[in-house]
Amino acid sequence: MSLRNLFALVCLNPAALWVLMLSATAEEKPNIIVIMADDMGCGDLSCYGATEIQTPHIDRLAAEGRRFTSGYCSASTCTPTRYSLLTGTYAFRQKGTGIAPPSSPAIIQPGTETLPSLLQKAGYATAVIGKWHLGLGGPEGPQWNGELKPGPLEIGFDHCFLLPTTNDRVPQVYVRDHRVLNLDPSDPLWVGKKKPSDDHPTGISHRASLKMDWSHGHNATVHNGISRIGFYTGGHAARFRDEDLADEWVAQSVQWIEKHRDGPFFLFFSSHDLHVPRMPHERFQGKTRLGFRGDAIVQLDWCVGELTKALDRLGLAENTLVVFCSDNGPVLDDGYQDHAVEMNGAHRAGGVFSGGKYSVFEGGTRTPFITRWKGRVAPAVVDDAIVCTVDFAASFASLTGVALEEDACLDSHDVMGVLLGDEGAAGRSHLIQQDNGRSGNFGYRVGSWKLQRHDSKTARNVVVEGKLANRKVTRYRLYDLEKDPGEKSDVIEEHPEMARKLIQELEQHIETGRTRS
Ligand code: NG6
Ligand code: CA
Predict the structure, then answer these.
(1) Which of 278, 287, 313, 462 could bridge 292 with an S-S bond, Cβ 3.0-4.6 Å?
(2) Strands 179-180 and 175-176
């Protein structure tokens, strides 16, 4: 409608002004930046009560925004959480969504409605910068020397600048859009599961020369003095140094934000900190008393500071929703001898919660969760509503006025009102928490009740004296999180009716194939 027509309409019928204002508020199109930490727990940030470490930039997000104490990711490992974040569907519903190996084909098929494809429909420019870990390429896996397709660009992102899997998995190269960056065709990149030659240096044959030793797994190809999962050769001009990852992603992100400053844009800043191998830039090494795990937290905090500074400089802070979250809970020793256990001291990475990465205890999925949108989200509010990263798809779709198809985003709940702190808005009434893949182990939270279901009959990653332990447990356990947030006392015998109700509900949610109405 032209401005002149609009003016005439409002003069003739003042009620039209109100209708126009309502639709303007129903459809807000701020820029959106989702910053996802890797393996960060609820106790890893000073704004969540950490005392052994200071995270001023992330604390500033909390001081200027809304900090959730029941903010979750949907799984306690990376690939399923990221699958759910992008598709809005619980990963346990889909085969092949466990931790992806180095040569995994693309896990999310082109044609799937995703968070970025929804935002594209709303007119957003979309990018993912950082860790991917959702596979690349067709059924035969990634064509490292050719086109890496399908990938993010086939499911809704206009641009990507990626670490293909995790940095403890080969290869250490960036993927920009469809190709490995800086690849020299005369030195092709080969990636495989088997040792390519007898004299290929590995973490076993060259253990004494490593700059960081491994503790379990991670003993195959050596690059930058660190041995990894899997084997690779070639692609030398394309290889990066672990120490430079965070700087590169910040530079790439700031450049992309500048290019799209006229908005609206959606940036998924997918950090690798504090995943292993923890090898922060030299300027952060030794900055904390907690060893490289703590230094990696400080590095991530710096990244957040750089991104928010860029928003300030470009005058975008009041026009940008920033969400900070994590892909799973914390782990100390995840396969390298980086002294995370020995140097942990009084630090409690999971806060008051038990378990951590790989676990369906609260520590596996209850993670830092902060929203900030200056001028829109009230500052310095702490909220105990239940919200989850699987909800971004439905929530951002509702924010930007995009309708969800019936068969899309099956477990994504519209919690936008809660994320923005709107009066009367409610969080989730229930949440399913999973570990990795389709183990059949679940957490199910309803209000302050928490049911655990252990089909594998062991509870993975119960933390005992700072170390991971796999303990045998009964199939079902029940906890009252209000009295017992650490899930220490199973009260299933005292509350059989409640347990029966939750067991049935959980089964029903799994069987019906969706929880979005
Ligand atoms: C495990 C790795 C662990 C980590 C994890 C994935 C071993 C022994 N352990 O298999 O180090 O890479 O996979 O982490 O290899 S995640 O955060 O990406 O899910
Ligand atoms: Ca992770």
Answers:
(1) 278
(2) antiparallel
Question: Within the chain, which residue ranges are assigned CATH 3.30.1120.10?
Answer: 432-512
**Which residue's alpha carbon is at the smallest distance from atom 12 of ligand 1?**
168
What CATH code is assigned to 432-512? 3.30.1120.10
Nearest CA among 262, 272, 320 for reference residue 296: 272
Superfamily per CATH, domain 31-429? Alkaline Phosphatase, subunit A (3.40.720.10)
pLDDT tops 90 at residue 319: yes
Ligand at shortest distance from the CA of 97: 1
Instruction: Report the DSSP pairing between strands 265-270 and 125-131.
Output: parallel
* 29 within 8 A of 320, measured Cβ to Cβ: no
Does the pLDDT of residue 256 top 50, yes or no? yes
Helical ranges in 156-291 per DSSP H:
245-259
Domain(s) of CATH 3.40.720.10: residues in the chain: 31-429
Ligand 1 pocket, Cβ-based, cut-off 6 angstroms = 38-39, 77-78, 99, 133, 166, 168, 216-218, 229, 275-276, 328, 334-335
Decide: residue 446, CB within 10 A, 0-12 exposed, 13-18 middle, 19+ buried. Answer: middle
For the segment 425-446, what is each residue's pLDDT rounded down to a tens digit? 999 999 999 999 888 899 999 9
392-414 as b/e: b if 16+ CB within 10 A:
bbbbbbbbbebebeeebbbbbbb
pLDDT tens digits, one per residue of 99-144:
999 999 999 999 999 999 999 999 999 999 999 999 999 999 999 9
The atom of ligand 1 lying closest to the CA of 77 is: 19
From the CA of 36, the nearest ligand is 2
Residue nearest to atom 5 of ligand 1 (CA): 99
Instruction: Look up residue 441 and give its amino acid.
Output: N
pTM greater than 0.70 (yes/no): yes
